[in-house]
Predict the 3D structure of the following.
Amino acid sequence: MSRHRRRVASGAAVAVAVLAGCAAPEEPTVTVGAAQMLAVEVADSPEERRVGLMGRTDVPEGTGMAFVYPEPLRGGFWMQDTLVPLSIVWVLDDTVVGVAEMERCADGEQCPVYYPRDADAVFDLAVEAAAGTFTEAGVRPGDQVSTTGLPGR
């Protein structure tokens, strides 16, 4: 083999090796119990978690938002400025700890706060999807959750 052909062959082998190691990142998904897999947007910064799905006029079936927390915490969710009803699950260590249907909050009305079970429950992930997504699939506390492409999970 000529010197030029060896360089081309060697260069091609390096390119293949580099490309093989650069697989595209996995699209973020969440599967909760028997519910369908959801393609999710990730809210993993304080600002992204604060805004969530506010202002959306639609949450298409099979999609949602994953609220990822670096450490387990106690807290709740509310529907201020959220235009569509949502289904939510709270998760700790890949296990559902709470499920709720959250109703749209009317303008000028005090919005309720939704908690996993009670104000003392701890979670490290919450997932919101179109209304009915989790309850209609029979999701309940204790169900397993699998994720792909979520930071820190």
In short: The beta strands are 29-32, 38-43, 63-74, 77-78, 86-92, 95-102, 113-114, 122-130, 145-148. The mean pLDDT is 86. DSSP finds two helices and nine strands in the chain. The longest strand covers residues 63-74.
